[in-house]
Structures are given as C-alpha cells and as structure tokens.
Amino acid sequence: MSDLEFMQQAIACAHSVEGHTSPRPAVGAVIVRDNRVIGRGATSPPYGPHAEIHALNEAGATAASGADLYTTLEPCCIAIHTPPCTKAIIAAGIRRVIIGALDPNPRVSGRGVAQLREAGINVVTGIAQQETSALIRPFATYITQGRPYVTAKWAMTLDGKLATHTGDAHWISGPAARTWVHQLRDRVDAIMIGAGTAHADNPLLTVRLTEAQRVHKRTPRQDPLRIVLSSYGKLGSHLHLLQEQLAPGTCVMVSETSSLQQREDLRQRGVQVIEVPANKTGQVDLVAALNILAQKGIMHLLLEGGSNLLGTAFGHNLIDHVAAFIAPKLIGGAGSPSPIGGSGLAVMQHALRLQGVSIQTIDEDLLIEGEIPHI
Ligand code: AOF
Ligand code: ZN
C-alpha cells in the first residue's frame, strides 16, 4: 500500500471522532510495519491521550520500534494537557513519520516536524493535504482567530426561498437531505438559530439518527449545544427548545440591554442565559457572541437560519463554510424570505465566491458546499 492509502486510514480514524474532540482538533494516526497497520488511534475527548499515543499503545512497544507512523496532523511538541507526542514517537523508535497537515497552532506549527527531524526521524509532510487540512479547519479558525468556525446551512426552493409567504417551510428538502443535516449536526459543537426561526419553525435542533445512520459510534454523546439568539429574550413558552424534557440545556444569548425580568423568566424554565454586549442598535453583537462561545470551547458552530441571523453573519464576514440545499420546488412570492437577509452587497463584483466547491445530489435535492475565503 502507498503512503496515500495508509494516510486515508488515518483520515478515517480522524473522521470517527470529528466533532467530539473540541476544543481539540480531530486527529487520526496509524502505525505501519511490514506494509500492515498494527495500531490505530484518534484524538480522545478533552483531555485524554492524543491520536498518536493511542496508535503507539495499540501497536505495542516491540512492534512500534522501527515502524512508520501516519498522522493527519503534525505531532505536538508542547505539553498542554498531555505530554508531547514528539517525545513519545522518538522514545518508541519510530523510523518514519508521514504527516498530513501542519499544526495551525502557532505554538506547534513546524516545531513538531523539526523536533522529529533533529532526532534523526525521516519526516514526510503534505500527504493528502486537502483532506487533512479540511479536518482541522474548525480548529484552525478557533486557534488563530479565537472564534468558532461557522458553517451556514440552509435549504431553499429552486426560486431561492426559505419558506412560503405565510412562513411555512415543512419541508423544502427531502428526507435524505434532512438525514444529511442530522449527520452534520452530529459533527458540530453548537447549533444557533435566531428568535424568528425559533418561532416560525419551532424546531428541536436535536440529532435524530438511527444507529445505522450515525457516523460516531464510538462516543455516543450529548447533542450539540442549542442556541437561540434573541436580543430581548422574548421567547414563547410553547417553544420546543425551551422544554427541558425535549431539548435539555438550551442556551439563549440575549443582549445586555434586555430586561432582567425576561432573563429571570428564562432561567426559571431551566434555560441557560448568556448576556452578550450590545451593538449600536441594542441588539446582540454577533462577533462578541462568537467570542464568548469560543471561550466555552465551541470550535464549530452551525447556523441554521434564518434570514436575519445569516444576514448579520454575512455582513460581518463570519461565515466560513456554506452547505446549501436546493430543492426542485417553486413557491414564489416577493415577500417570501431568502437565505441571507441584511442589506446585502451593492455590486456583483464584490460577491463572495465559494472555494473548493463540491456539488452533489441527495435524492432529488442538490447540495452545494464550499469555503468562504477571508482575505
Ligand atoms: C497531536 N495529536 O491528536 C491532537 C493534537 O493538550 P491539548 O489536547 O489541549 O492540545 C495541545 C495541542 O496539540 C493542540 O493545541 C493542537 O495543536 C495539538 N493537537 N496534536 O499531536 C492529536 N489533537
Ligand atoms: Zn500530541
């Protein structure tokens, strides 16, 4: 098998824990001896051992000596919560280290590779660069910008509408597309919607998948944190998200200008209330809200609408990844909402162009995904 094929196996290990390691990156590693995988590992939830250590342990000291290590991320050379992986790799007598992406953490970046080379280990970098970099995108944004990586997801009709003029949106995309969204939810740390969407759709925002549809079989875990952004905290008590037994631990982010009584009422219902600095109009400052979430260890945030929230995120250039479904349906209506509100751009030349675009069909729906570069 080639380096690329063994790296694919390390990537599969990383995928098995994606979204379950925050605020750490999801890393996968395999140890290879005589062209055979003898150890596998993936990053533990905070703060257990790193991927490389699990792989070394599985291989065992005797077999690991003189073997090759494939890892999706440059091994760490600093002791934050666990001893540095470089030290363990050198001590184990690994002969060759094959790395996907370099660590975006400025405390590690390049130093891990340098330490291994200084110890006489043959180090190869940049294998499966695209896939291994994609795996650490949330961590890269988190560690370099101090905010969560933001995925904006929506489903719209072929004529670009999120709902009819009466607000009905059940359903735009088909069942297979909706299952895909639940799998996406299973890979993120938190899901945020605006108060308008909370009232219009009355969603649960839970991950509803059968065992067979679940990617993450290793760590059955709690659902991602559900967040409603509601500047004034005025939310109907009928909302499913506010029912402790249906959606436990929902968080409502309110502006610091909201009434104390309103916040107290929410807290009485078991809701977690977070006060966020206000912008000039007294509403929640979304940049400040994201910084607060990063401090809570939220590395990947999924925005599920609606138009106002996505318009604000777009206006502040906070969207990193787009996952847009287009359903072959027409509903029309000048007043029917479209995915991104706000004031929008004036000239086409300034349009944000997605990069690394992937287009696929999921049953009858089209899914377009891509990254938004921040230059
Ligand atoms: C690795 N293997 O599996 C991961 C790495 O002590 P921590 O977990 O908070 O992380 C320290 C740094 O190690 C973290 O900032 C990141 O750069 C890197 N993560 N490194 O060798 C792993 N998850
Ligand atoms: Zn490490």
Can you characterise this structure?
Substrate binds at residues 185, 205, 208, 304. Keywords: Hydrolase, Metal-binding, Multifunctional enzyme, NADP, Oxidoreductase, Riboflavin biosynthesis, Zinc. The chain is of the alpha/beta class. The protein has two domains: 3-135, Cytidine Deaminase, domain 2, CATH 3.40.140.10; 146-371, Dihydrofolate Reductase, subunit A (3-Layer(aba) Sandwich). 28% of the residues lie in helices and 22% in strands. The chain has twelve helices and 14 strands. The strands form two sheets. The protein has a nine-stranded mixed β-sheet, sandwiched between helices. A five-stranded mixed β-sheet has the order 2-1-3-4-5, with helices on both faces. Strand 1 (28-33) and strand 2 form a beta hairpin. Helix 4 (85-92) runs parallel beside helix 5. The two termini are 39 Å apart. The relative contact order is 0.12. The mean pLDDT is 94.
The geometry reads as globular
Instruction: Could you tell me the CATH topology label of the largest domain.
Output: Dihydrofolate Reductase, subunit A
Radius of gyration: 22 Å
Count structural domains. 2
Could you name the CATH homologous superfamily of the largest domain? Dihydrofolate Reductase, subunit A
